[in-house]
Amino acid sequence: MADVKKDNKDTKYMVAENAGSGVIQIADDVVSSIVGLAVTEVDGVARLTGDISRELVAKLGKKNLSKGVVVSYEDAEDGSKKVRVTTSIQIKFGYNILEVSANVQEKVKTALLTMTGLECLTVNVKVSGIEFGE
Q1: Which of 12, 65, 67, 90 could form a disulfide with 36, with the two C-beta atoms 3.0–4.6 Å apart?
Q2: The whole model's pTM is what?
Q3: What average pLDDT does range 6-31 have in this prediction?
Q4: How many other C-beta atoms lie within 10 A of the C-beta of residue 65?
């Protein structure tokens, strides 16, 4: 199992190689962004958490959707590539942590399968905190 390095933007996963047609590759940042977007769409998730502070993201003027997402690939017995995802989130106060986490797992699996064809072996959800509102 090879860990995906977040700082290496050139790392790619080969989706298909058709004789005469060329190669289709998906950058790891794209996979991480798909996961991040899927996670933030789940009701009850306040935000992804990771190493980047909110102030830095605000200065950049955009959300970093790959923050708090770790993706790794594994060869399956049938020769295909499978993905393992670990995500770190903060949950809104008043939501059931187990339900939100299960919804995150399902949403990530569905998003990756429909958008990239990648099948998830596992989606690990780490709840790093609760947002109490402002």
Answers
A1: 65
A2: 0.76
A3: 69
A4: 18
